[in-house]
Amino acid sequence: MKWSYLTTIGILIGLWLFTVVIKVQPFLVPPPNLVVSVLWVEREVFLQHGIRTVSIGLVGYLVANGLGIALAIAFYYVPWLEAFVNPWIVFITRIPFIVFSSIFVVVFRTTVVPQIIIVVLVTIFTIVANVSEGLRSADPVLLDRMKVLHASRLQVFRKVLWAAAKPYFIAAQLIAFTGMVIAMIVAEYQYGSEGLGFLLLRGQQQYRMDKLYAVAIIVSGLSVGIYILIKAYQSYELKKRRIVTRGQ
Hints:
- It contains 10 helices and no strands.
- By secondary structure, it is mainly alpha-helical.
- It folds into 2 domains: 1-29; 31-247, MetI-like (MetI-like fold), CATH 1.10.3720.
């Protein structure tokens, strides 16, 4: 799998260099050396704004995970609650979050609360759907055995239900984290005064294509890097489950 990522990166770099060979205007596609120079010269600025984007995004991301898991558990133990709440979740999360952003700015002004809410709205549905499906996929035979053994609800949840839902939860992170990054960039681009999204806006206003490409590289590297880490952890968990299954 790592070779596929390297091949993709190689093709993109090759296309970028090709634009230099055919002499595309720098204000449209800046040469790689110019973008690398900007990344190095303004590294402290990119680092400061990048930390701001990631830190606030992670707050919304953690809130979405906490609420998503709690809702999925509630749906499992109280089935009628899912029938009541799920349509509202689908309705709210399917409305473009740009529609909500202006309302949030008026209500919460220039605080970070609107950005956190947008991240939650973008990521929570995937987590709720995946964890709910994982809990329902628990082996009924194991659940019956736990009842026979007089296991507590907490033991049943830890040993059977969460064990079944964990792969689904990890898979949800592949989409949720990328959604978090996109939500933060758009939110900062619209009304932020800091962050990578704000740098995109400022670069656009100043016609600094080198800065726009630099931010795009940082955001892409962040998203792809986390995606690879989550995939690696997912593979590790699958191998561990296979070993446990064979041992049984």
